[in-house]
Amino acid sequence: MPLPWDFRPIEGGRVRLDAMRSDDFDALYALHSDPEVCRYLLFEPRSAEQVAAVLERDAPKTRLEKVDDYIQPAIRLRDGDGGLVGTMYLHLTSVDDRTAEIGWLVGPSFQGRGYARECAELLLELSFGELGLHRVHAELDPRNAASVAVCVRLGMRHEATFVEHMWLKGEWTDTGIYAILEREWADRQR
């Protein structure tokens, strides 16, 4: 793996992955404070102070070098005003095994248009190309049908469902694991 690796904007057909900025606060707050958006996430709706702390923590995360490093770029529409419509996530889980976790969050008014899939494709292409990863996986609440559908469209294989895996938001919740290998991604690109 060619580490360290520093983030730079990634262009897709309709989207651009770019570093989060301080002027993303309002859009990020709208996402993170919405109970419906947070329904299947690991956190409850966040206060303005909590979102400010998240932005301060995540905006500088632009380098992958060691285990647990991550990037969380903003999703922006190429034909839009440059505002944040969601975020992506790529977390380096092992350098030796060349693995990472991927995730996405798209605002309600932008859901159902394929933006999460397109952005995930950009990060998978980066992961299996320039970064030389072997395996990328997603962990999600299996009740989140939209995210499950993104995984399926990406060619990710359902590997496991951990039943009542964690106590979250007052209930036992399952965790679904989806994954794709570099050779499987390469086969899909042919």
From TrEMBL:
**Under which name does UniProt file this protein?**
GNAT family protein
Which Pfam families does the entry mention? Acetyltransf_3
Its transmembrane ranges are none
Recorded source organism is Microbacterium deminutum
Per the record, the coiled-coil ranges are none
The N-acetyltransferase domain sits at: 15-184
Q: Which domain of life is it from?
A: Bacteria
